[in-house]
Amino acid sequence: MVVQQYRSGGGARAACALAVAAAVSVACGCSAQDEVDGGSGTRAVAAERPRDLLGRAADVLAEAGGAEARTSMQTAAGGTRVTIRGRGTYDFRKQVGRLKVMLPDGAAGADRHRPITELLAPGALYMRNRGAGVPDGKWVRIDTTGLKDGNLVTGGATDPMAAAELLRGAREVTYAGTSELAGVTVRHYRGVADLGRAARAASPLSRGALNAAAKGFSKDAVPFDAYLDEEGRLRKVRHRFSFASRGPEVSVVSTLLLYGFGTPAAVVLPDGDDIYTGEIRQD
Predict the structure, then answer these.
(1) How far apart are CA 178 and CA 282, in angstroms?
(2) 241 vs 281, higher pLDDT
(3) Are 247 and 78 in contact (CB under 8 A)?
(4) How far apart are the C-alpha atoms of 195 and 159, rounded to whole Å?
(5) What is the DSSP code (8-state) at residue 36?
(6) Taking 60 as the threshold, does the pLDDT of residue 28 lie above it?
(7) 70 forms bridges with which residues in the sheet?
(8) Between residues 23 and 153, which one has the greater pLDDT?
């Protein structure tokens, strides 16, 4: 059994993923969800350089405001595979969001399909229904700038803004043609994102967490597949992370799908009295 202590004041410090570390000990892998909704855009982007398009994907999302999101995180370690899924809404202007994240059957910390509610905010991740000794209705707060992965994998879902900000570090980009995603024409780009470069180019609210990830991952290079619509909005992105653990190297494939642009994301962060500061056990 692993016990992790969370204290008030400086927020949580976690060496490995909470949701993911619990799940990695059981299994990993799945096909990403490929269905999204929403209309196609009208602005042609084909003539622009791929790196330029990807470099401003986060800015275009901020202009769009809110969106609905689906996530899929596939982890693999030592032949063990686990899939974690989530869905919710995200406000790219305020960089806050709300997700319901579902751990698979048998994953440590999973409570019989009881979803974990996550609130995403600049520099912080809030989790409710975490289980493992956390009272019902209480939140766990994690300081994402102190995480070795910057919350790219900790919560079982990559923060949507962080996923877009990573594309600021894109290099070795190739255009892979057009396809349709739920009736929307998208352009497919493949490349590798440099964590350090992305952190330096990130918006101020995202920079702290990405700086932590740039220092904490075992590899700076993050391969990706990104799909942009005709307005340059990111509709789908898949990142492939790898990091060292106490045992074999852990590989993570994180997929984000965005749709329903303009959807408001009503996020109210919990008060201090609602945040649990005791011990969290992972059996």
Answers:
(1) 44
(2) 241
(3) yes
(4) 15
(5) -
(6) no
(7) 87, 257
(8) 153
Nearest to 20 by CA among 245, 226, 201, 209: 245
With a CB cutoff of 8 Å and minimum separation 6, the contacts of 213 are: 147, 148, 149, 150, 152, 195, 199
Q: 252-264: string of b/e by CB count within 10 Å (b at 16+)?
A: bbbbbbbbebebe
Q: What are phi and psi of 92, to 5 degrees?
A: -75, -15
Record the tokens describing residue 247, joined without a space: 């045992």
Q: Give the residue ranges of DSSP H helices in the chain.
A: 18-24, 50-55, 57-64, 160-165, 195-201, 204-216
Tell the residue number behind the tokens 């409710």, with chain if given. Answer: 128
Burial state string for 110-125 with b = 16 or more CB within 10 A and e = fewer than 16: beeeebbbbbbbbbbb
Q: Which residue has the tokens 């470069």?
A: 197
Among the listed residues 154, 106, 105, the one whose alpha carbon sits nearest the alpha carbon of residue 280: 154
pLDDT tier for residue 136 given thresholds of 50, 70 and 90? confident
Residue found under tokens 């084909």 = 46
Separation CA 141–CA 38 (nearest Å): 33
Which pLDDT belongs to residue 198? 97
DSSP state of 10: T
- Residue written as tokens 């967490």? 209
In 3D, which of 140, 97, 149, 142 has the Cα closest to residue 123?
142
Query: What is the Cα–Cα distance from 220 to 214, expressed in whole angstroms?
Result: 6
Phi, psi (rounded to 5 degrees) for 258: -120, 140
What pLDDT shows up at residue 11?
39
Name the pLDDT band for 47 (thresholds 50, 70, 90).
low
- CA dist 191 and 167 (Å) reads 9
